[in-house]
Amino acid sequence: MAGPASVGGSRILLRKLREIMEAGGEAQQRLDRLVAMVASTMVADVCSIYLKRGDVHELFATQGLKPEAVHRTTLKLGEGLVGLVAEQAAPLNLADAPHHERFSYRPETGEDPFSSFLGVPIVRSERTFGVLVVQNRAARLYGEDEVEALQTIAMVLAEMVASGAFGDLTGLAEVEALPSKPELIAGKSFSDGICIGVAVLHEPHAPLGRVIADDPVREEARLDEALAHVRRSLAEMLEGDPGRISGVSREVLETFLMLANDPSWEVKLKLGVRAGLSADAAVERVRGEHRAKFNATRDQYLRERLHDLEDLDNRLLRALAGVQGGAGQTLPDDAVLIARELGPAELLDYGSRLKGVALEEGANTAHAAIVARALGIPMVGALHGLLSRVEAGDRIVLDGERGEVRLRPEQAFVHTYKQRINLRSARAEEFARLRGVPPVTQDGERVTLLLNAGLALDVHHLDEAGAEGIGLFRTEFQFMVSETLPRLESQTMLYRDVLEAAGARPVTFRTLDLGGDKVLPYVAAEREENPALGWRAIRIGLDRPALLRYQLRALISAASNRRLRVMFPLVTTVSEFDAARALVDRELDWCRQNGRTPPSIVEVGVMVESPALAFSIGDLKGRADFISIGTNDLMQYFFAADRGNQRVSDRYDVLSAPALRLLKRIRDDADAAGLQVSICGEAAGRPLEAMTFVALGFRRLSMPASGIGPVKRLILSMEAHATADAVARLMSRNRPSIRNELTEFARAEGYAL
């Protein structure tokens, strides 16, 4: 038995579906008429709709199976052929279904005589919430045209169920095509803070408008125009000045352009339009399939390709709707950004317009998280399933203290969180009262608290937080948010503004730390097997000395007649430091020879981030003026655990005996070499870690602005020598972590953690 032709048959199905919707009636009546219409039009003996309810797929409507099986027949998730279709988020076409290994017989349905089976997923966004099935007695494979027709109906059905066109299906059996119930998703805290706001998607859904098109010819013309626009924009990025490439590497852009010109993608889109869908709906259907497949696969190569395809779908939807996506979109005042992952430059584009950020993936040591902390934006990540459970406009509570989000919270929870926000404000007032109090321990040990910064606006936190200077100024952020390499004048102006805002307080500038997840928009990046161990930081600076000299010249110019402190990132060998310092001396000579006024004092230091340099501190005597320990990278390399990989980033703890022994060794070696030493990793801003670092003998800690108040309060309450004895005792126990024991000690002593 032949089914409908791809174009004509699908249009007939869609026209009849529209008639069903316009005829009115209860939800169940409409579903019953729909399956009867599909069975009749496709010349099928059976048409059935299964919708997900909780942890089962329930038969909601059928034409051809026993009517009494409706709402009685259920299949566990993953069970039977229906479960297989939902699991794979792809059509299943079988000529002899009863002999398939996943076939699950349900006697109450009366499906014994039916051999052929075609099931397609009912997908919306990333949610597969049902399966549409047709069956026939004759053993046959359904044709491609029939598969396309059924997929088209499934897509329209999904949109209509979600929009409420079938009425309130939740009254029938708790079906949630569009999430509406309150949900709690536990993740990990990336940046402290609590906010209540409205969900805004980093890649927003373009408005679909009408799903079914009145004029297929016009819709195909719209699609052609949008496809041409996307292809043209990608080609222009590649063919123009390399300095104008925005946000992704040349290799990725070339991949995008190749996929954008893939005939199979265009054919699939046009089949939807010719079947009667609007151009927007055809793209949305394909995007839904890509997203569902992305969630179903664990193969990294396929995930990357599907992610690229989804990006193209998003670009095409925006081209069709004429809307701007990403950071250019208009945001509500209480926007909470929702994304799968976010780069530091993308977050900087949004800036302070955000109340909070929620990420499905990510890691708390990633540079986007560091930027969030610098901007004072609460961020929670590792929120598994977030994108499939949130819709744009949903109310959301983001808890950066506990590392969780509440979607569509009940009013009682909103009230509770408002109280917590008020308590945080009261605590901030307490820290403000400590602003002018020197951080001295109970037994008289003076500790210097410094600020980590990366933006000019961060410097204004010096007074707010009561910091005594900037222990780490990350210079790369200026490069990452610019469309082209910042000119010498622009760099000089930024560094001069920072020094002037700091006044007499010291500022330590770190030279460009690029590579890894920090990619410049205007530099074609090469893909590396392990970018964290690859061509980055000082390695780039020494291989491209003109870039490093350009920056050093700007720093020296900005610090005219002032004190200049500069340090180099990710130095592994002393010879690397010598080569970098030689560039400083060369630029100082250039400054003097050209009649410029050099800095009054120049101090050159190095970040200790690699174990190799950690065991070479003594060799820096007479070479370096100071060292600064970057715990983020040092612990990453010490434990061989990628800090950007959420599967392993939490497997190590800086408060473990081996890590603390390494830090103490660095401290002792620095003392012996006469080097000033500080810790400027994110860990320094957490009270328990700060207490332990002070106990190890560190007296200079640099941290995010949000950490100054809590750490100062802790220092004022502790005794350094008693804590040092306790830490030394606990370090003798070779455990993965002594965090719990340190916490118990601090609480027993009454320290203000």
Largest sheet descriptor: 8 strands, mixed
Helical coverage, percent range: 40-55%
Count of separate DSSP helical elements: 26
User: Taking strands numbered 1, 2, ... along the chain, how are they ordered across the largest sheet?
Assistant: 7-14-13-9-10-11-12-8
Mean of all residue-level pLDDT scores: 84
Structural description of this entry:
By secondary structure, the protein is α/β, with parallel strands linked by helices. It is built from 26 helices and 22 strands. Strand 1 and strand 2 (56-63) form a beta hairpin.
Key words describing this protein structure:
753 residues, alpha/beta, 8-stranded parallel beta sheet, 44% helix, disordered N terminus
Task: Briefly summarize what is shown.
The protein is α/β, with parallel strands linked by helices.
Strand-helix topology:
Elements: H1 6-22, H2 27-41, E1 46-53, E2 56-63, E3 74-76, H3 80-88, E4 92-94, E5 116-124, E6 127-136, H4 144-163, H5 170-173, E7 183-186, E8 188-191, E9 194-201, H6 216-239, H7 250-260, H8 263-274, H9 279-296, H10 300-321, E10 335-339, H11 344-350, E11 356-359, H12 367-375, E12 379-381, E13 395-399, E14 404-407, H13 411-433, E15 448-453, H14 461-465, E16 470-474, H15 476-480, H16 488-502, E17 507-510, H17 538-543, H18 545-558, E18 563-568, H19 574-593, E19 601-608, H20 611-614, E20 626-629, H21 631-638, H22 657-673, E21 676-679, H23 687-695, E22 700-703, H24 705-717, H25 720-731, H26 739-749
Parallel strand pairs: 9-10, 10-11, 11-12, 15-16, 15-22, 16-17, 17-18, 18-19, 19-20, 20-21
Antiparallel strand pairs: 1-2, 1-6, 2-3, 4-5, 5-6, 7-14, 8-12, 9-13, 13-14
Helix pairs in contact: 1-2, 1-4, 6-7, 6-8, 6-10, 8-9, 9-10, 11-12, 13-24, 16-18, 18-19, 23-24, 23-25, 25-26
